[in-house]
Amino acid sequence: MLEMVDLNKKLQAKEFKKNMPDLEHRVSDLQRECRDKGIATILVFEGLEASGKGTCINRLMRPLDPRGFKVHPIHPPTEVEKMWPFLIRFWKLLPARGRLSIFDRSWYRVLGQRVRKEVSKSECARAYEEILAFERQQVDDGAVIVKFWLHIGKKEQEKRFRAYEKVKAMAWKVGKDEWKQHRQYDTYIKAADEMLEKTNTASAPWVIVEGHDRQYAVNKIYEVLIATWESALKAAEAKGKKAARPEAAARSAHTITVLSKLDLTQKLPRKKYTEEIAKLKDRIRLLEYEIYRRRIPVVICYEGCDAAGKGGNIKRLTENLDPRGYEVVPIAAPTREELDHHYLWRFAGCIPKAGHFTIFDRTWYGRVMVERIEGFCSRDAWQRAYREINEFEEHLTGFGAVIVKFWLHIDQDEQLRRFKERQKIAWKKWKLTDEDWRNREKWPRYEIAINDMLLKCSTSYAPWTIIEANDKYFARVKALKTVIKAIEKRL
């Protein structure tokens, strides 16, 4: 593919100067329109060394409102960044709705790793699959992605390297690594061809920019960005703002399968509970040190009915742990900043680094439960969330993370008893809200959503464990045993 690119394309200086004012004004106008429409834009600049990425980014920035964009120069991951799955640091850099993120290098650094044989061919293929899922998730959420590959020939690269070396202020740009890449030019081009072929999609396309003539390259980038933004604005206009609607009335009861089969009568006598919980707490503490030594991240997800005992369960799990090795993340309604991003964005920032625990009190599964039931997102959004969540969790486990997911379930009678108990006890009153009472009226609809979630998002790499939680002692012991078993299996 790249061998067939015509690198002789040029744009005369006179024509370039004539074109740029109109292009710059149009880009400036479109940036404001995209801001007003809440369209996030992601521009990726990739290419061989000395291909002109910095020059093109700098020229593109001139007409843009600096309050609306940010440039992210991406370097090889630090030792600290290596302690997270590789896409997590890019999740954190994604633009809010209406803003623009420009990546000088990006998640495609896997290309260089492939050439340097730091990853195998199968690992590289898996990385591309994860990248495709990552990009699709952003586009489905309304973002615009354009990926530019700036291309130059081998002789041109050498010519630019020589020119840099002659200028003291620019000599730092060329070192042993750059010359090594030059010697491996053909290998890089072959690997780049494979990358472009595997990751070029209609929704996140690669645009090859002929980079020998910088004026031609800049002009082309402007034209592509203008066309992309104009198309996105037309699509947004055609789509309009469709108000999300609350989930329709529940389907008939015979569709309920997973939860209806639970035996919620299981109990554990207090004496046996006291003996077992003490042993389990000692074991989980030893495992905490072992996962730290082995640098294994552990993600524990708690979901459940209101008053199912998540807080008490989490307390027993953590009270004997070293507090330096874990974090409990309580998830409430999203903030304005969080709503301006993909719903997974706020969770990506809380994923534990290798060797640590993160315990989520409620999770990303709110997308397919409360947001679905209450109409906080569209039907299309929560339906595609099953796939997005599975992809997100697969990326974590592919890095080596242990994921344990609990659904704590109680019946309606037990929930009512606990609600009334909270009303009577002063130090428990804060736990009961008007929303808890309203949710009881929606029990049938929530039960259907829960069953869908359990069936569609229980995978071999991140299975759901249903905890029969009418008896708190039984629930706490089962949860601890499940976490211990999952970690021991990983070890």
Features:
Rossmann fold; 491 residues; five-stranded parallel β-sheet; 12% strand; 19 helices
Q: What layout of secondary structure does this protein have?
A:
Elements: H1 13-37, E1 41-47, H2 53-61, E2 69-73, H3 88-91, E3 100-104, H4 110-115, H5 121-140, E4 144-151, H6 154-166, H7 176-183, H8 185-199, E5 206-210, H9 214-239, H10 270-294, E6 298-304, H11 310-318, E7 326-330, H12 336-339, H13 345-348, E8 357-361, H14 370-374, H15 379-398, E9 402-409, H16 412-424, H17 434-441, H18 443-456, E10 464-468, H19 472-490
Parallel strand pairs: 1-3, 1-4, 2-3, 4-5, 6-8, 6-9, 7-8, 9-10
Helix pairs in contact: 1-9, 2-9, 5-15, 10-19, 11-19
Would you mind describing this structure in some detail?
- The structure is a single chain.
- This protein is 50% helix and 12% strand.
- It is an alpha/beta fold.
- The protein has two domains: 2-239, Rossmann fold (3-Layer(aba) Sandwich); 253-490, Rossmann fold.
- The protein has a five-stranded parallel sheet, with helices on both faces. It has a five-stranded parallel sheet with strand order 7-8-6-9-10, with helices on both faces.
- Helix 2 (53-61) packs across helix 9, helix 5 runs antiparallel to helix 15 and helix 10 (270-294) runs parallel beside helix 19.
- The longest helix is centred in the middle third of the chain and has 26 residues, at 214-239.
